Amino acid sequence: MQNHDVDFIPIVRSGACADIGFRTTMEDVYLCVDNFMHHYGLKNFTNGPSAFYGVFDGHGGKHAADFVCSHLPRFIVENEDFPVEIERVVASAFQQTDTAFAEACQLDAALASGTTVLAALVVGRLLVVANAGDCRAVLCRRGKAIEMSRDHKPNCNQERERIEASGGYVNDGYLNGQLNVARALGDWHMEGLKRVGGGPLSAEPELMTRKLTEEDEFLIIGCDGLWDVFRSENAVNFARRRLQEHNDPVMCSKDLVDEALKRRSGDNLSVVVVCFQPQAPPNLVAPRSRVHRSFSAEGLRELQSFLDGVGN
C-alpha cells in the first residue's frame, strides 16, 4: 500500500448544495473550483489537481460572505509564493481579505457584517484546510471520519484563553456578549471586537494539512447548520452510503442538506462534497479472525457438567 500511496494522485470531483432552511434570509455562500489555477488564468505546475473549495457563513447580512468568497481565492492565487509556501500564503490571504473588507466598509457602511470562513485547497496530493469560525471539514479515510478543522466557539478553552488575553470576555457562550463564534472575518463595526493587529475576534485561520492517500475517499465541508444535527462520524457514514448508491457528489451534497432539514436544523445550510477517486467508496468487509478458538478436553467436561446441573 505504501508504494501505491507514493504514486497516488487524487482525481477531484465536487458538488454543492445550499438551502435557506427555516431562516427568513440566506446569508451562506459557497465556492467550488475544481481547476483553481486555470480558473484564475495561471499554468498549473503541480503534479495533479489544484482545487479550491470554500464555505462562508455570513451573519448580520451577506455582504461579508460575498466579499470574502470573491477576494480570498484571488489573494491566495496571486501570491508569488503560491503554491510552494501554501500554508503561509493561505494564512496571509485571510488577513489580507479581512483588512480589505475593513477598508471597503469605511467607504460604504452598508456593507457592515461578518462571516465565518472555511477554505480547503487540494494541490497535488496535499489537502490544506484553513478555518476561522464554526464551519467544519471532515475527511473520510476508508470509512473513518477525520476532522480537518476545529469549531471556534467562545466557550472552547483555547479560544476563551485567547479572547481574555486580548481584552475580551465570554458571557453565556457569546464573545463579548455579542457573537457565538470566536473567529470570523469582518464585524469591524461591532464595538470592542476588532482592532488593527488583534482583538478578541480573530481572523487568523487554524490550518490542518494532510497528504492524501488511496484510502482517502471524500471530504465534507459544511456550515454549522449541518453540524447542529450531524456528528462528524454520522455525516461520513450517511454520505458514504449515498455515494455507494449513486457516486455523485452533487446528489450527495443535496442528500446531506435534505437530511439536515428533516432533522430540523434551524440555520441556513451549505454543504460541499469533494470526492478524491473516480469510483464509489468500496464496501468494507471486516477481516475474519485468524485466532482459532477451541475447548480443551477438560473445558468440555466442565461445560458438560454445568449443562447437566442446569438440566437437573
Structure description:
With 312 residues, this protein is of the alpha+beta class. It has a single domain, classed as PPM-type phosphatase domain (Phosphatase 2c, domain 1, 4-Layer Sandwich). It contains 9 helices and 13 strands. The mean pLDDT is 92.
Q: In total, how many domains does the architecture comprise?
A: 1
- Stretches where pLDDT is under 50 for at least 5 consecutive residues are none
CATH architecture: 4-Layer Sandwich
Q: Secondary-structure element order, as H and E?
A: HEEHEHHEEEEHEEEEEHHHEH
Q: Compute the gyration radius: what is it?
A: 24 Å
CATH topology: Phosphatase 2c, domain 1
Shape: globular
CATH class: Alpha Beta
Relevant CATH superfamily: PPM-type phosphatase domain
- List the total number of helices: 9
Number of strands: 13
SSE class: alpha+beta
InterPro entries: PP2C (IPR015655), PP2C_BS (IPR000222), PPM-type-like_dom_sf (IPR036457), PPM-type_phosphatase-like_dom (IPR001932)
Domain PPM-type phosphatase: 13-276
Pfam families: PP2C
GO molecular function: metal ion binding; protein serine/threonine phosphatase activity
Describe the protein's topology.
Blueprint: H1 2-7, E1 13-19, E2 28-33, H2 36-39, E3 50-59, H3 63-77, H4 86-107, E4 114-123, E5 126-132, E6 136-141, E7 144-147, H5 157-165, E8 170-171, E9 174-175, E10 185-186, E11 206-211, E12 216-222, H6 224-227, H7 232-246, H8 249-262, E13 269-275, H9 297-311
Antiparallel strand pairs: 1-13, 2-3, 3-4, 4-5, 4-10, 5-11, 6-7, 6-12, 8-9, 12-13
Helix pairs in contact: 3-4, 7-8
